[in-house]
Model the fold of this input.
Amino acid sequence: MIHDPYGPEYVVKVHDSKIGLTGFLVVHNTALGPGKGGIRMTPDVGEEEIGRLASTMTWKNALAGIPFGGAKAGIIWPSSAEAAVGKSGNTEDHKKELIRAFARALHPLLIKKYIAGPDVNTGEKEMQWFAEAVGAWSVVTGKPAKYCVMTVDGQKCGLPHEFGSTGFGVAHSAKVAAELMGMKIKGAKVAIHGFGNVGTFTYTHLTKMGAKVIAIADKDGAVFVPGGFNAQKIAQLIRAKKTIRDYVGGKKIRPEDFWRIPVDILIPASVTDVINNSNKKHIKAKLIVEAGNIPMRENIEDELFRKGIMFVPDFVANAGGVISSYAEYRGYSPEKMFRLVEDKIVAATRAVIGESLRRKKNPRQVAMELARKRVEAAMAKRKTAFDK
Done:
């Protein structure tokens, strides 16, 4: 686990051999507010990955200008459905059992130090399970829209990430960054790696803006359409929950060849470190907008930037989800949430990319300077990390 001047404040490992639960929580910094970050469920999730992501959340929330700190959680969840089945004999029942047990284990830290949310392999359903396990609506965000509670301020309802707030924000970040670089979003050629919640909504909103998405890859393959994907066919594909290889009319390409396609904008919206030493030399893009968390290590970002490729850091571009979480926490409507996401994403992207272009400085370094100033100012107001 990497320590820095800002954290982590808490590193928690949860284990219950009886139900096969192994989970992790890292609360990086709570100077600005309770640590906010989702729960991911993958086969190889561990402290190191969760620690990196928790740190990213600190800077993401600070730069977005919302009163949350940074945290992240994970539960080991086998990729094989058979391996994931517990004593009940049902995969979903076992997943629910793990989520609920994890929530109860973390109960002493919830609200004051950690507010959960959805991430890889968790969504609105899992968030409701989490809240129900401890009997508290506000311990988690990203809940179903119909899961509501009455408060002194009126009714508050969930704002699930299935509304597409992250992809909506990524699209607006791409538009602003492109325009600052002198590139019009209308007609810009785009490639998207990852076609889950974030990738699909990014596609939808960029297409509405007039961008031309010509390559899409997901876990099952990649498809190249030189003239741009047909929006109606893609919409049907998304509704049917089919993979991109089911798209009719495109050229199926090898996953490794996806990175070789020349585009104006490349959007990695899949897993951590998807851009790495094996493919970085093939990338031919003017702008990379990091929709996924930590899609490449910082040394690779710097290498690409020195080659003339601009990028919008993950904690700038994909902050729509956590801004939506704050909106849910405050009890905002979906309409007010989307306005807040657009305003804050546009402002953050403009500040970071504008300054990066002006100073010819790596945009992550620029973004970190801005975020650190906000966190350090908050840290200076308390004696220790554990003062009330």
